[in-house]
Amino acid sequence: METRTLVIAGVGGQGIMLASRIFADALFRMGYDVKQAEVHGLSQRGGSVMTYVRWGEKVWAPITGNFGADYLIALEELEALRYLHLIKPSGTVLINTYRFVPMSVSSGLRGPDGKPYAYPENVPEIVRKNVKDTHTVDALSIAMELGNARVMNVVVVGAAANLIGLDREIMERTVADRVPPKYRELNVEAFRRGWEAV
Questions:
Q1: N or C: where does the chain have the smaller number of CB atoms within 10 Å of the terminal CB?
Q2: What one-character-per-residue DSSP string does 64-129 give?
């Protein structure tokens, strides 16, 4: 099997690292060689965060260059655009339809052209022009239905695992093992709801 690459992007505080560790752990349990790399802003709440998870028979490097990733999961819309250059045109993108308005936009900061920065409209459509296999999930609404917005990341993990075609049972078991026991049932249900949402 050739090496596959997954990029997970979002903003600090969204649980990107947990999502990345769930994938890496589950893929290892599935028998693959796995490499994981954290790349940006992990300690900055609200800052851009991105991780790589790569798996295959033998993985030699933890990251790839531009247009090298097979899958891009964005937990926030703008992050899908920020890291679009990393995914192959033939790849698969999953966008959580959640917006975290950056400080540059909310504060009315102006760009070099004198115009105020604005949050891009129709992000999924923009992404789809570059990568046809683009999907969306409203993970926040699902998480809120479950009573806890913080499981939004695990909803996205479930949706992505289904799109990628990973073993559902192993993924569920890994979610259960990776979260605190008192939140286990909630997170497993979040994963299941995400899986069924795509």
A1: N
A2: --TT-EEEEEESSHHHHHHTGGGEEEEEEEEEE------HHHHTT-B-TTSPBP-PPS-HHHHHHH
How far is residue 38's CA from residue 52's CA, in Å, rounded to a whole number? 7
**Residue 112, phi then psi, degrees to nearest 5:** -60, -25
Q: Measuring CA to CA, which residue among 71, 110, 81, 100 is closest to residue 12?
A: 100
Instruction: Answer yes or no: is 84 within a domain.
Output: yes
Q: For 137, what's the count of Cα atoms within 13 Å in the CB-facing half-sphere?
A: 30
Q: For residue 143, what is the domain's CATH number?
A: 3.40.920.10
pLDDT per residue as tens digits for the range 151-181 = 999 999 999 999 999 999 999 999 999 999 9
Closest by CA position to 96, among listed 16, 171, 27: 16
Residues 17 and 186: their CA atoms lie apart, in Å, by 18
